[in-house]
Amino acid sequence: MIAILLGLTAVVLLVAGPTMIVQGLVGRRSVTSELAQQRITFPADEGLPAGLHRYAGTPVHTGAQARAFADLIGAHVAKATGGRTYSEIADEWMAGGRTDERLARLRETAFMGQSLRGALLGAYQAWQITVLVLALGAVFTVMGAAFLALALHGI
């Protein structure tokens, strides 16, 4: 009875594992394709903060690159807004009667920057999920092979 259960579990794992690997690769290809379509490229080396120099002039095609570019946008937005959030600037603009053009432009800058940053972080998170799915697929495949070996040897 145990050999039959191990065999059935092996079959399920040997189907699920490779399926997860394929889906992880498809997801990764999708993220790469979407990022490539955006034609985002890091600026030249002199325009990058410390830690991002390795990306100078390269296009954004991976999750790690999307995260790094999101950090770059975050740094630019923080510099432009003096570290204030969109919400803080919008509150100040509304409290002033919505007439201050400088605050209106700053509010737009904060909104657009945070929106772009959020989209890139979403791509990074999707990339991270593909890593998880690929790893689980590999683990399931190895476990399935081990269970099948145990079942065939009549454990």
Question: Which terms summarize this structure?
Answer:
4 helices, mainly alpha, 76% helix, 155 residues
Structure description:
With 155 residues, this protein is an all-alpha fold. The protein has one domain (2-152). It contains 4 helices and no strands. It has helices spanning 2-38, 63-81, 86-95, 101-152. Helix 2 (63-81) runs antiparallel to helix 4. The radius of gyration is 24 Å and the shape is elongated. The model has no long low-confidence stretch (mean pLDDT 94).
Number of helices: 4
Biggest sheet character: none
Q: How would you describe the shape?
A: elongated
Unreliable parts: none
Helix content: over 70%
Helix-strand string: HHHH
Q: Please report the distance between the alpha carbons of the first and last residues.
A: 10 Å
- How confident overall, as mean pLDDT? 94
Total number of strands = 0
Rounded to an integer in angstroms, the radius of gyration calculated over CA atoms is 24 Å
Assign the structural class, choosing from mainly alpha, mainly beta, alpha/beta, alpha+beta, or little secondary structure: mainly alpha
**What is the beta-strand fraction?**
under 5%
Integer tally of domains: 1
Architecture blueprint of SSEs:
Blueprint: H1 2-38, H2 63-81, H3 86-95, H4 101-152
Helix pairs in contact: 1-4, 2-4, 3-4
What is the gist of this entry?
76% of the residues lie in helices and 0% in strands. The chain has helices at 2-38, 63-81, 86-95, 101-152. Helix 2 (63-81) runs antiparallel to helix 4 and helix 3 (86-95) runs antiparallel to helix 4 (101-152).
